[in-house]
């Protein structure tokens, strides 16, 4: 049993309220739904199975690589959160990027992508997509005229991340959407860093993807992704003849979908808590003379842009980057911070505890060195995904103690 408002209603709600208004009951009226782990479903009448294969039977489940009731249920809640028509959970964030792009570009063609994308996405675009007839130009998305100049007759997609890693630049999604519409392109947005904070569909994105491994999970205990878009586009991903998810197979397990379904209820609270602790930490660092990048600080070049697109009440996000000058200093600081139980030296983000990594030698290492230096992505950057556990004052004190020790100040 299910109660769910329409997509049109969701567009005007806060993500928090939209999540709240999706309710699935368990059997016998349970306040949580049941997990349906079946890999395959039975049919009372053989002719219905044939019709189901041709997409002619509504609400019928065939086989869980095609669709699964628990994964469908999660999709409805995620679609509500993003104010989009439909969503499909997949096995990872990378599965979301690759399947969405290939579904949009069955004949190949050209993508204009932001230069500041996650290193795995960069490597996929640079090394794997060309094998599939897709060429990618990387452009500074802060320069809209450069974006427009890069568009060719073969271009099909503009690809952006709402907030970039690790310099925390912000894309002007509304302006990109205007460009996309002018040239008949699809705007695809990776919103992994800013779930609930920013709703790209409200700003004109056609397709939104997330790595659910990060904030949406919040537990650093599973790998998952989601593709969101129109009902028609999401259905095309599982078409038995042409669907990239159906036919390349990176589907989401029902148990993972169930976990995420429950965790979505506290995602808005977690995002606000991440933002609160990150802003506290960034301000304390700034006051103490640390070279800190945080989009909520008055000196950040994209603060006004971010403010103009934020959903109110969730802050400026949980990511903070510190410029330590050299890779050696960044690693030394991270090691000291780990000793002091400030955080854990590990890639990824969105965990309840602080995670620290040096992007130039980890999550952005796939990006060639000359490209990294064009972006300003230097060896000395230490990226912090600020957790919300612990006392902000005490965590700031631990950071500053280690910082002063490493920099002898
Ligand atoms: N997009 C962004 C912005 C990411 O940071 C990541 C992973 O770090 C991905 C996509 C890929 O997600 P996953 O690791 O779930 O495949």
List keywords for this structure.
binds pyridoxal-5'-phosphate, five-stranded mixed sheet, Aspartate Aminotransferase, domain 1, alpha/beta, Aspartate Aminotransferase, domain 2, 409 residues
Class based on secondary structure composition and strand pairing: alpha/beta
Task: Indicate how many domains the architecture comprises.
Answer: 2
| Gross geometry | globular
Could you give the order of the helices and strands? EHHEHHEHEHEHEHEEEHHHHEHEHEEHEH
**What is the third-level CATH name, the topology of the largest domain?**
Aspartate Aminotransferase, domain 2
Main β-sheet: number of strands, strand sense, barrel status?
A: 7 strands, mixed
Radius of gyration: 22 Å
What's the CATH H-level homologous superfamily of the largest domain? Type I PLP-dependent aspartate aminotransferase-like (Major domain)
Which residue ranges are poorly predicted, with pLDDT under 50 across at least 5 consecutive positions?
none
* Tally of DSSP β-strands: 14
Strand order of the largest sheet: 3-9-8-7-6-4-5
Protein topology:
Elements: E1 2-3, H1 7-11, H2 15-20, E2 23-24, H3 46-53, H4 69-82, E3 86-90, H5 93-104, E4 109-114, H6 119-128, E5 134-139, H7 144-150, E6 155-161, H8 173-182, E7 186-190, E8 207-211, E9 225-229, H9 231-236, H10 244-248, H11 254-263, H12 267-287, E10 292-293, H13 303-309, E11 319-323, H14 327-339, E12 344-345, E13 355-357, H15 369-375, E14 381-385, H16 392-406
Parallel strand pairs: 4-5, 4-6, 6-7, 7-8, 12-13
Antiparallel strand pairs: 1-2, 3-9, 8-9, 10-11, 11-14, 13-14
Helix pairs in contact: 4-11, 12-16, 14-16
Residues 92-94, 118, 120-121, 161, 165, 190, 192, 211, 213, 223, 225, 363 line the site of pyridoxal-5'-phosphate.
């Amino acid at each position: 049993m299910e109660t769910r408002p329409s997509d049109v209603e969701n567009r005007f709600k806060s993500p928090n309220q939209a999540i709240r208004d999706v309710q699935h009951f368990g059997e016998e009226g349970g306040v949580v739904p049941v997990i349906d782990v079946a890999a395959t479903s039975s049919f009372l009448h053989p002719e219905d199975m044939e019709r189901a294969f041709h997409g002619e039977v509504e609400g019928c489940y065939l086989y869980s690589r095609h669709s699964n009731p628990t994964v469908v249920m999660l999709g409805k809640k995620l679609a509500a959160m993003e104010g989009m028509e439909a969503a499909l959970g997949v096995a990872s964030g990378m599965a979301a990027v690759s399947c969405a792009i290939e579904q949009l570009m069955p004949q190949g063609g050209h993508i204009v992508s932001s230069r500041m994308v996650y290193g795995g996405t960069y490597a996929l675009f640079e090394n794997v997509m060309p094998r599939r007839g897709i060429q990618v130009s990387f452009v500074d998305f802060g320069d809209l005229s450069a974006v427009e100049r890069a568009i060719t007759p073969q271009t099909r997609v503009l690809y952006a991340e709402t907030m970039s890693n690790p310099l925390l630049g912000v894309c002007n999604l509304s302006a990109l959407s205007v460009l996309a519409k002018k040239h008949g392109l699809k705007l695809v947005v990776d919103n992994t860093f800013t779930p609930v904070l920013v709703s790209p569909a409200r700003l004109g994105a056609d397709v939104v993807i997330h790595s659910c491994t990060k904030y949406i999970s919040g537990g650093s205990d599973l790998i998952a992704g989601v593709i969101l878009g129109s009902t028609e586009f999401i259905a095309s991903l599982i078409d038995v003849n042409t669907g990239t998810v159906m036919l390349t197979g990176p589907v989401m397990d029902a148990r993972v979908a169930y976990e995420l379904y429950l965790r979505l209820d506290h995602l808005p609270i977690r995002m606000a808590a991440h933002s609160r602790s990150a802003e506290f930490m960034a301000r304390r660092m700034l006051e103490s003379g640390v070279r800190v990048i945080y989009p909520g600080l008055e000196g950040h070049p994209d603060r006004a842009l971010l403010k103009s697109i934020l959903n109110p009440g969730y802050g400026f996000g949980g990511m903070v980057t510190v410029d330590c000058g050299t890779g050696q200093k960044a690693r030394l600081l991270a090691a000291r911070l780990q000793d002091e139980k400030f955080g854990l030296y590990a890639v990824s983000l969105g965990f309840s505890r602080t995670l620290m990594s040096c992007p130039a030698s980890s999550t952005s290492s796939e990006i060639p060195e000359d490209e990294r230096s064009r972006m300003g992505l230097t060896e000395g950057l230490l990226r912090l995904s600020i957790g919300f556990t612990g006392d902000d004052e005490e965590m700031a004190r631990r950071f500053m103690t280690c910082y002063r020790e490493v920099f002898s100040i």
